[in-house]
Amino acid sequence: MARQEIVFKEAELDDAAGLADFLEQVVTESDFLSQDDDSPNMTVEETACFIQNHLESPNQVCLLAKCDARVIGVLNIEAASHVRVNHIGDIFIAVAKEFWGHGLGQILLEEAIDWAEHSGIIRRLELTVQARNERAVHIYEKFGFEIEGTKRRGAKTKNGDFLDVYLMAKLIENVTE
Amino acid sequence: MARQEIVFKEAELDDAAGLADFLEQVVTESDFLSQDDDSPNMTVEETACFIQNHLESPNQVCLLAKCDARVIGVLNIEAASHVRVNHIGDIFIAVAKEFWGHGLGQILLEEAIDWAEHSGIIRRLELTVQARNERAVHIYEKFGFEIEGTKRRGAKTKNGDFLDVYLMAKLIENVTE
């Protein structure tokens, strides 16, 4: 990967096709996502709508890692619009398998935390992660996420075995500069 | 309330208008819901679509408490369709303020647990509840829900004060009769 340039950027409308392709691919590559290959994929139009919605929301962002024109990683922050919970950002993160082990997820996470601290609205970032995915749990802890609880039967494998899932969160203090 | 007959039933398409009205009312009455009166309300058409979707899903149900023709309580179980997590039912429960304190929520909860045990698919029921809502927490515990974690800043008041929110869950064993 040494000579390939990776660009990190906010998803724009013309990333819709690339992001839809990436999401379709990534669910087949990892057993750690709550989505799986039975999940209905978003069409390109739905993905464009999703990106537009994020561009217009002060408390949502979709960050991409791209190699040339190809989307190879995504970190999405989803939040509700109503005041009671609009300070809570829910993180989804995925990296294409051939790029695992190069720290792309960590760069995306760093960007996302920085975005949240400057959002003026997000005061809590949360995510869920399978307890068996120790590598991911350690990375999240390194970035200040704490395990708040364990969801028993929070997911199941293709064989129907139940898995513990951690609820992790990091409190965000807004930075004004 | 002694002479009023309360009926508990699964929501059908012709409950759409009544359910939409009820949901619009209930968000103004309680500070304990994650929705609030800033939340966009569902139109009657959207509510009908929501009910239809639940009627067709093996892992979702919308239960109503009705007094005459009026909807006065709802317990909704929402679940995802993909296999990794289609055994998890997320509970939303609300009762009209003038009927608080008569145990309607408990009857709805009992019905919902019975429904889940006979669903053949739900193996975990989960819900979130503000930690300060002690009465509700005790009722959930009475029905076998356990606190799995505390979400710091899991909600905020209208004044912007952050609240702890419990993640509670009950494991379900399917009953075949």
Automatic annotation (TrEMBL), chains A, B:
Pfam families: Acetyltransf_1. Keywords: Acyltransferase, Transferase. Coiled coil: none annotated. Residues 6-173 form the N-acetyltransferase domain. The keyword Acyltransferase applies. GO terms for molecular function: diamine N-acetyltransferase activity. Its EC number is 2.3.1.57. This is GNAT family acetyltransferase. It comes from Streptococcus merionis. The lineage of its organism: Bacteria, Bacillati, Bacillota, Bacilli, Lactobacillales.
